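Action item from last meeting closed. Structure (387 res):
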């Protein structure tokens, strides 16, 4: 894709207007205006509004590079959008009539420009923003997120499928370029480059790094007995909520991988939010967040049982989920996770204390997660309320 094919706020209206009939979102006489949506790093995103009716759609384009760095920066295959659309299609097939509960409606896909058009989730907010700004989220959100992961993971779990289907899913959703990015930036770079100041007292010793290597191997799909079709980056910044409704977005890192990955990515946000609210002295929010984490796990485990996943595998997924949780908490607390809002305080002392508290949880959990790891993690979070 050349630079000339990259859409801008100036060219988006005509691009949409030329395809209005195929997209089906606007009348032919629509007066369209576009606005860039900022905050993302990898793609270009826009909202497009008909000034006549006020109707708005969301447009996303995947360039051949990381958008935040521009065309001369880090190269990246735009084929990630094909993976994103493919996983949406798989999820729709699994969820059937419930798909609209969890997924936005996609109106149009154009692989020649690596563009898709979907509903603009007007009135929705990113879950991570709500957890940081308010901390109080509907219990139904937690239940539905547990259900979504449990149903999609259970239906695609390698223990329940014929080997040819497992091989197909692994090949179809290997997503190697995006997986390699995660292997480097989530599981490697932060530990190589962390200073004593970054670690803030966390002991990253041989035993700790052995756990990280175990998680890397499982993320890479090296353990074929325990794989599911996964979002791959299901942190709270990939979920939009309104009231009791949650919508899953941005699955471009989708992989056929360890199911604990998605659970851990999501719970890492809840753990970071609990620490953040504790150091914001919002203890009611801390209790609500911990309850949400408990509901996510319990509803996930229940859905996996309904899908026929064995208790032994669910226990294994629990240990992996807790590992992925604290690995992401660790990376974020050490400030290797970009511009996320967690643990950002104007008061430097409060910020440092919050980081140390998060890393203390990491240190106590990472090597002790293999037996009742979820109970250990939740008990440490509950101590934040007491403190």
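Sequence:
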């Amino acid at each position: 894709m050349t630079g000339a094919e990259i859409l801008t706020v100036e060219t988006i209206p005509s691009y949409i207007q030329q395809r209005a009939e195929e997209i089906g979102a606007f009348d032919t006489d629509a007066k369209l205006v576009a606005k860039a949506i900022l905050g993302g790093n990898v793609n270009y995103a826009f909202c497009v509004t008909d000034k006549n009716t006020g109707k708005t759609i969301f447009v996303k384009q995947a360039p051949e590079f990381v958008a935040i760095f521009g065309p001369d920066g880090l190269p990246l295959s735009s084929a990630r959008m094909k993976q994103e659309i493919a996983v949406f299609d798989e999820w729709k097939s699994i969820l059937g009539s419930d798909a609209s509960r969890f997924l936005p409606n996609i109106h149009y896909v154009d692989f020649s420009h690596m563009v898709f058009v979907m509903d603009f989730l007007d009135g929705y907010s990113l879950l991570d923003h709500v957890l940081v700004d308010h901390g109080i989220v509907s219990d139904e959100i937690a239940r539905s997120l547990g259900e979504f992961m449990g149903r999609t993971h259970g239906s695609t779990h390698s223990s329940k499928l014929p080997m040819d289907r497992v091989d197909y899913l692994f090949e179809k959703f290997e997503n190697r370029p995006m997986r390699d990015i995660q292997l480097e930036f989530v599981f490697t770079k932060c530990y190589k480059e962390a200073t004593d100041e970054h670690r803030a007292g966390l002991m990253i010793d041989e035993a700790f790094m052995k756990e990280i290597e175990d998680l890397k191997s499982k993320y890479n799909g090296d353990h074929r007995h325990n794989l599911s079709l996964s979002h791959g980056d299901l942190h709270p910044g990939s979920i939009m909520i309104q009231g009791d409704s949650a919508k899953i977005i941005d699955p471009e890192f989708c992989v056929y991988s360890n199911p604990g990955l998605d659970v851990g990515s999501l719970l890492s946000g809840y753990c970071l939010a609990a620490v953040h609210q504790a150091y914001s002295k919002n203890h009611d929010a801390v209790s609500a967040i911990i309850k949400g984490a408990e509901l996510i796990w319990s509803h996930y485990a229940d859905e996996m049982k309904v899908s026929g996943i064995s208790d032994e595998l669910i226990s294994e997924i629990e240990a992996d989920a807790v590992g992925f949780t604290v690995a992401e908490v660790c990376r974020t607390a050490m400030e290797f996770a970009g511009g996320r809002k967690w643990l950002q305080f104007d008061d430097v002392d409060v910020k440092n204390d919050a980081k140390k508290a998060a890393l203390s949880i990491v240190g106590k959990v990472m090597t002790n997660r293999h037996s009742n790891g979820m109970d250990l993690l939740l008990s440490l979070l509950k101590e934040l309320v007491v403190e």
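Note appended to the action item: The chain has two domains: 3-119, 125-386.
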